[in-house]
């Protein structure tokens, strides 16, 4: 009975172009990767600065393996609290300009743990409608009142804030860079509203660390509001090229999370070698990443403008995340398959990851891509778009 129910669901997803499957890769991440034995240009990685296979990170991890071994052995509150964890937390706090920092094993665990620890029954949280699933799940776990505001709509947010009275704590939570749209949260306006209506502010800087800001500190630095954000969460798996996540904030906040955040308390500590590699990545981002960041932004501009000139809808992308709106899931999947046949790896993103009728190709550029890579991809997009009647389809959808 259960098997038949699951089979029916899989059949329905396949029919609607929504089925997902894992495709084996070999070798390290980079501008070229090997997928199912085929070398392809990688245009869907979050490895924005090209650090995932950086020699310096590998050397730091190898040295730590010799010193601290492979696994942490237990949760950090038992006996898994390794020296490498503390060094990374101290480096992140210095870099982000906060009093303290706490590591989590993944970004999902960070968001669910932080939000459900800080908020609870009798509180209210205002969340951007396009926030990451981990934020949504953290809010649901908290059992606080959950109120979504339309994407980046500050007038709507203020109206909601005006009508929210009688709650113990009020919080505004937002992604910094929205991972499927590539646009930026209006942080300055959010901070102003938070001060006016006495709200906590939490920002998820997963895609902003190393990418935004003069020194790569993230979107809070970019907008000059670092000292006005109560909770700065981010990940080490994107521009830092590693794994794990962090929460930066006051000493009181971090002490509270150590005692209350279930996804921190009840899990084994991060492997020490990963922490050591991430510390090296933070060092590189803080001291040596400006040329990489300049190349990243140059590549993002060239790719986005090139796609627009060829008639593709890149939505409101302002970052190295460049969505190409297709709307139809089957067409998005077909486009992705044709790109793969031409040696280009770009994922089709479909519901429920994005809202219904907003299926897209999610293209990301990195600092490692060459001008030749960009030109090749742009040419293939033009050819395949014509082959699949993208322009006609877009016109029909607009009508």
**Which overall shape is indicated by the principal axes computed on the Cα atoms?**
globular
Structural class: alpha/beta
What portion of the residues fall into strands of 2 or more residues? 15-25%
CATH superfamily of the largest domain: Type I PLP-dependent aspartate aminotransferase-like (Major domain)
Strand order of the largest sheet: 4-10-9-8-7-5-6
CATH architecture grouping of the largest domain: 3-Layer(aba) Sandwich
The radius of gyration over CA amounts to 22 Å
User: Under CATH, the topology of the largest domain is which?
Assistant: Aspartate Aminotransferase, domain 2
**Span between N and C termini?**
44 Å
Q: Average the pLDDT over all residues and give the rounded result.
A: 95
Write the SSE topology:
Layout: H1 2-15, E1 25-26, E2 32-35, E3 38-42, H2 55-68, H3 83-96, E4 100-104, H4 107-118, E5 124-128, H5 133-142, E6 145-149, H6 154-162, E7 170-175, H7 187-197, E8 200-204, H8 219-223, E9 231-235, E10 245-249, H9 251-260, H10 262-265, H11 272-288, H12 290-309, E11 321-327, H13 329-341, E12 344-345, E13 347-349, E14 359-364, H14 371-387, H15 390-398
Parallel strand pairs: 3-12, 5-6, 5-7, 7-8, 8-9
Antiparallel strand pairs: 1-2, 2-3, 4-10, 9-10, 11-14, 13-14
